[in-house]
Amino acid sequence: MIEKRFSLVDNQVVKPIFALLLFCGLALILSIPAGREVKDLAPLAALRREGMYFYVYIFLSGILGLSLGTLAALQRERGIVLYIHIASRVGIGNAMLVPYFIFARSLYPGRESMLVLMILYGTLVSLFTSVISRLVEERGHGASPRGFLAKYAVFAVYYVLPLVGIPVLSPLGFVNRLFAGASVWRILLGFVAPLVLTLGGVIVCERRLGRQK
Amino acid sequence: MRRRHMARDGPVAIWQVGVVGFVVLLSVFLAAISGEGSPAPRIDVSLGFSGYFVPERMVPLRVRISGVDEAFAGSLQITEQVGNAWRGQARASFCIPIDSALGIHEDSIPIYDFSHPLVVSLLDEQRNIIAQQEVNLRDKWKSKPFTLLAGSFDSASQAVGDAVQISEIELPSKWVSYGGVSSLWLGRMSYGLSAAQEEAIYRWTSAGGTTVIFTGSDFFRIDSPLMRGMIPLASPHMAAGERRLSGDLRSGAKVVVGDPVGAPLVIWRRLGAGDVLLVTVDAFSLSQAQYTDLRGVVTDAELLNLNDVARSLLLQMPLTRPGFPTAIAIVAVLLLSLVMIASRVRRGPARGIMLLIVVLACSVWSGLYANQTKQLCDIYTVNTDVSAQMALGYTILSRGYIYLGGRDLAAPLVRVNDAILQELPHDLNDTSYDIDISCDDGATISMQPEHMRVLRGGGRDAARISLFRSGDERVEIDSRLDVALPYAAVINDGESFVVGPIAPGAHEYSLSGATGALAPTPRGLAMLYNAVSKAYDLSLGTWLIAGGVSDSIVDNGNYRQKVRDVKLVLVEGESR
Is cis: bond before B520, omega within 30 of 0? Predict the structure, then answer.
């Protein structure tokens, strides 16, 4: 068996990162108020006001994680190598967005701490969804139709279901609260959710993938 | 034995009860006496002109404080509920600092509505309420400005129509308080006018008010240098055996009503943006028909209102924001670099290093571009000020705010040293129109995204500039301002001369080459000048028109505010 050498930015990784960069870039451009004068302030101004860029970013962070998890399943990565590879790919994806976040400072002046928290949270969400994706795709050894449906079902449940009860547990609800200026406890609760879920995912991953070794 | 003891105990108990009762009665008596010596704190509030006022105008407020030390320090808190369940509701509150309980405290407050009583509270230094009075506003409100008769008038004055008559001592000493008056008629004075009242009348008239002055044999009751400077007659005097005031007509003055023998009865002149009508006889010498004639020539006051200018300027303010080209370029460079590196660079570590270099370069580019000058502002503000300096100075101001931030905000936006009135729409349901003016003159306004607020007011402060005609073609301008005024023109008998920037200090300027007044100027200043030039008659005498536009950004942590100050100074010249 030929062991494939790990590449931080291989051709498979480029696609999800490209999608992340493209759609976040579009969201950033659309967040810039269009008018030259106060009276020209178009209805699109609401996109910036409501923080559309951050919703797009957090949504695509989850999608990025799903793609990276599938890639890891295709490459049959497991053990510590799996986590190092996932973390480094998620890291490179988010690092590519740093120029956008610096630019976003001009759209949300005085809210630098929110930008930093947002990028940390997005990274956590990506890690969680990649671990889940790796777990789900294990049965079909990557990119199976059932695996596809299952991982997107988990993704939808994670993003939508908490909105009904405890919104801050949903990534979209967390963005909303962070953007509106939530209390420290709510922010902590929001961070704890993906952190605990990721650790839980890692433990389950270790048990199931370890058994199949 | 036992019974004897009981019998002896009985009278003793009655005696003790009697002593206790006496002590209680004595204490009650002493308390009553001491209570009479220092009565409870109390305030007596009077509002408007004998109670009459016009909603959504500035109104005089008088408060007499009793039952506290003369050295009392505290404040008056005035609270007003505006609107109803259908119209929507808002709350307005104002604080007036009090540093002594002596005399009557007079101020000018905005009244927005008449449906709820006004609550006036006296607060001590710890902001505890120690006295309170509710003022019913339902009975004496008027839907439009009214004629105010001050002093005594003949019964024929009933021909004036819907007028409110007061004693001259009730006349306010702040010019903005006359906001609900359409014309002020000064009749026979029993007590005369105080200097503060005269100054208030002068300022209000020159800001667009209309004052009718009855003179004749009563002229001596109002005669003062300020009133002499106000009336249309120079060197006023009573000819021997006449009951009519005579004198030389000032430039621009004209006789608008004559008496049956052809002598001047009513003489008019323009004073700043307002009108002065001098009746050459006293208030008891006019017939009903003459009162009717007089009413026909009296125009209603129209105070210079800069709200429309402020609103237009606010909507025309340039947005501070990052540009699209740079954003698109950053996105494009990142995407292209990713594709190029992935397709061209074969070795894994080299790809990583090259991507890192691209990200670093784009981050630096982004950081250098998205600096302070490109950052969005939450609030855009326009401050328009017209500072007029004639015999007395005053300021007319308007403030416009629009909030483009994301969250509801209650921010101390306005720093006002002057009376301020918020413009309210009929429907108050769409947002909160609460306003709170604190004792340190800061106004806090509740704002929601994309809502605009316009406030207006006036004060006594004027630009410290003097203009002297030092020759046919020369003027001296003495500016005691700290900054230069970049745009300035002198209008001499209707001809305009651009004199350029006015530096602080006294400088001579030559008047040569007549041009359009104040041209070329920034759009904001030109709009303000157009509004002012319509109200003031600048064709007579010598006037200095100067001004400037300045932008600044205030970042107070909670919000970023872009402020545009548009100032216009109007100074009437004096001869040397």
Answer: yes
Sheet holding B542-555, edge to edge: B419-422, B452-459, B393-403, B379-389, B560-572, B542-555, B487-492, B495-498
A99 and B CB contact within 8 Å: yes
Give the separation between CA B170 and CA B314, rounded to whole angstroms: 39
What is the interface size between A and B, counted as CB pairs within 8 Å? 139
The 10s digit of each residue's pLDDT in B83-134 is 988 999 999 998 988 888 777 899 999 999 999 999 999 998 888 999 999 9
Torsion of CA B538, B539, B540, B543, to 10 degrees: 40
Running DSSP on this structure, what letter comes out for residue B177?
Answer: G
Q: Compute CA distances A1 → A4, A6, A77, whole Å.
A: 9, 15, 14
Q: Which amino acid is at B334?
A: L
Which H or E run contains B236? strand B233-238
| Cβ burial, residue B192 (10 Å; 0-12/13-18/19+) | middle
Give the Cβ contact number of residue B299 at 10 Å. 12
Torsion of Cα atoms, B452 then B453 then B454 then B455, to 10°: -170
What is the C-alpha R_g of chain B? 33
**φ, ψ (nearest 5 deg) of residue B117:** -70, 150
Cβ–Cβ of B328/A26 closer than 8 Å? no
A14·B317 Cβ contact <8 A: no
pLDDT at B34: 53
- For residue B200, give Cα distances in angstroms to B63, B206, B417: 19, 10, 17
Domain spans of chain A?
11-211
pLDDT tens, B17-42?
Answer: 677 677 767 766 665 555 555 678 88
Contacts of B107 (CB under 8 A, 6+ apart): B60, B61, B96, B174
Crossing angle of the two packed helices A112-137 and A171-180, in degrees rounded to 10: 180
From the list A7, A21, A51, the residue facing B334 with the nearest CB is A21
**CA–CA min distance A9, chain B (Å):** 6
> Taking Cα atoms as reference points, which of B73, B53, B64 lies closest to residue B439?
B73
SS3 B274: strand
User: What would the two tokens of residue B500 be?
Assistant: 């350029």
Q: Is residue B98 classed as helix, strand or coil in its secondary structure?
A: strand
pLDDT band for position B47 (cuts 50, 70, 90): very high
| Residues B322-374: tens digit of each pLDDT | 999 999 999 999 999 999 998 887 776 788 888 899 999 999 999 999 888 88
Q: Which of residues 124-163 of A touch B (CB under 8 A)?
A: none
Q: Which amino acid is at B126?
A: Q
Confidence of residue A2 (pLDDT cuts 50, 70, 90): very low
Tokens encoding B103 = 């005399």
What's the rounded mean pLDDT across residues B297-323?
Answer: 91
Which chain B residues in 300-329 lie under 8 Å from chain A, judged by CB atoms? 314-319, 321-324, 326-328
Distance from CA of A39 to the nearest CA of B (A): 5
Closest-CA distance, A104 to chain B, in angstroms, reads 8
